[in-house]
Amino acid sequence: MSKPRLMNRFLGIGVLLFASVIVVWGQQKEPLSFVQSIPLPALHDGDFDHFAVDLASHRLFLTAEKNAAVEVFDLQTNKLIHTLTDIEEPHSMLYRADLKKLFVIDGGAAEVKIYEGETYKRLGAIKLEDDADSMAYDPATKYLYVVNGGKGAKMAYCLVSIVDTTTDKKLADIKIDSDSVEALALEKSGPRIFVNITGKDAVGVIDREKHTVIATWPIGQESKHNVAMAFDEAAHRFTWSMTWRMTQKLSAFTLQAATSSMCFNRKILTTTSLWDKFPALSAPRRRF
Q: Which CATH number does the domain housing residue 194 bear?
């Protein structure tokens, strides 16, 4: 995944809080506040990507993708307690507390790596295409939907691979006709997955039961290069993080009811620049 370098040798808990802004933006009026920094002297370059949490054991997992590591933090002491290093380029993760298993999407190795949650012992891997990255998890079926393939794999299309995290097997692939796909969002009340088709400045709608793309919604008139996504199902509202020519902003759109499904209402509700809302993000960053 190509994105600005946002990492120095400290993990700011304020950065962790910012990572949730796409979910709560528009709902939370109070500004985010910085809490604490955790020194990470062993990390040298690259950006942080995704997080996963083990609430029962008070642990936070962080992928330091360009450092080829997954960092594990104790949320009670706010200290680094373990580092997974047998990873090439970690991206998104899932921790299944019921199985005590950590699933790590390794884009460099083109696989989902599986670890025992308490000993951190590697249990196995599920092979995917190159450049595996974003994912979404369905807690009802225990299926993981993983984006892979595309430009980074020298493929003209991307795949959303369905992985059963109970049997540790890949079940199927859903083809997306674009060489760049980013975030996913699952519908809880129905069978759809919404996916950012970044290569086409569009949002795709997938029927996860039929394993096919059933609609494509262009959003290029409002904003380009849609990356992160959040779906407020109760309010029928999407929020996207857009990056285009070094500008970053959040945009909110709505879904509109139509017959038995929902169609896309392209009316933009609001847009805000991340640089304006969070001035600290535009400050110069040290490179290591």
A: 2.130.10.10
